[in-house]
Amino acid sequence: MTLPVSDYPALWLRDNCSCGDCVAPGTEQKLHGITDLAPDTRIARVEEHEDAVVVVFAPDDHRSRFTHAWLAAHRLDAGSGTRPADDRSEDAKNLWQATDLADAIPTGDWPTFQQDPVARAAGLEALLRQGFFLLRDVPPTDRAVLTVAESFGYVRRTNYGELFEVRVEDQPTNLAFSSLPITPHTDNPYRDPVPTIQLLHCLVNAAEGGDSGLVDGFAAAARLRAEDPAAFDLLARTPVTFRYADAATELSATRPLIGLDPVGRIREIRFNNRSMRPIALPAEQIAAFYAAYRRLAEILYSAEAQLTFRLEPGDCVVFDNTRVLHARTGFRAGGARHLQGCYADLDGAYSALAVLRRGSLESNGAA
Ligand code: OGA
Ligand code: ZN
Ligand code: ZN
Q1: pLDDT at residue 78, as a whole number
Q2: Contacts for 82-86 with beta carbons within 8 Å, 24 or more apart?
């Protein structure tokens, strides 16, 4: 269906002209800024063509061509204009409970993932939609986790190094490096920007216990919103400070437990009981905050929410650290257990997936 050009404000159309004077040829980069366009830009004339319209603007007399397909893809009515596409927000996700995925954990094997673009796209698609995927047959060797991260993105080096060793230490500064159970959490909430992808690669898991859990934090927040909208709002509006310190490091970041995008959709979960600092709120609001925080924790820790599985040597789980919380059960202190972990970021993974999809669209006849 052809939309009348009058559905689109003149200045918006003028700003989106894609002619060679407005966009540098061979790029998608605009050559003008807003101050180059007249504030009183208006449509002087419209010429209708078979598959496009040509608009002549006043006062600059500029001619722009817009295809009907482009106009239809950029409608400004309620359906799209008020809920912009954002791969990071809850609208772009398949929310899950443990039972939805218990027999359907998105799983690939590393040799195929490396060789086959279709398998690689499927893994990255699972990361984007479900928030994680599991790779098997990653050689259980030192630094292999970095090779996995580099296959779809860029390793984020931190104070823990390029990678971190998850094994029992004598004097752990982080409880991950002990044999204690760890409840569902997101990593490094004390960092801004937070690492948006985490990988955990199992080298040894011979200990009794030490099973893994994953929880969809977006699903948990959505459940809280449905049950108790005031509690959800309070958690979305209350800044919380997280902190980590050791002999060489002092990190802190202040963000809400539930991060919303500008139109109110769930976009980021930060949840880590270990590194939360005292909540700063007027005293009379503290009880309500704790009740809301407790309810979100109860949902996150519930058996329905938590997908449990056991990492075997060679397994590598890759997850969205802004959405999916991870956990492990405690294990016998003497037991052998060793994971290597590293961080990466979603922008690189989304780019890798977009380029893979571009390849599949062009594979008809392209060499
Ligand atoms: C971590 C962590 C879980 C595990 O290192 O961030 O949460 O399975 N580890 O040991
Ligand atoms: Zn132009
Ligand atoms: Zn962790």
Answers
A1: 64
A2: 82/263, 83/263, 83/265, 84/263, 86/261, 86/265, 86/267
The helix, strand and coil proportions of the chain, stated in percent and rounded to the nearest 5, come to 30, 25, 40
328 lines ligand 1 (CB under 6 A): yes
Residue 142 identity (one-letter amino acid): D
Domains and CATH numbers, the chain: 5-73 (3.30.2020.30), 90-354 (3.60.130.10)
> What's the 54 CA to ligand 3 centre distance in angstroms?
55
* Positions in the chain whose pLDDT score sits under 50: 363-367
User: Looking at this protein, which amino acid is placed at residue 279?
Assistant: I
Q: What is the pLDDT of residues 157-193, one digit of tens each?
A: 999 999 999 999 989 888 889 999 999 999 999 999 9
Binding site membership of 212 for ligand 1 (Cβ less than 6 Å): yes
- The CA distance from 224 to 298, in Å, is 10
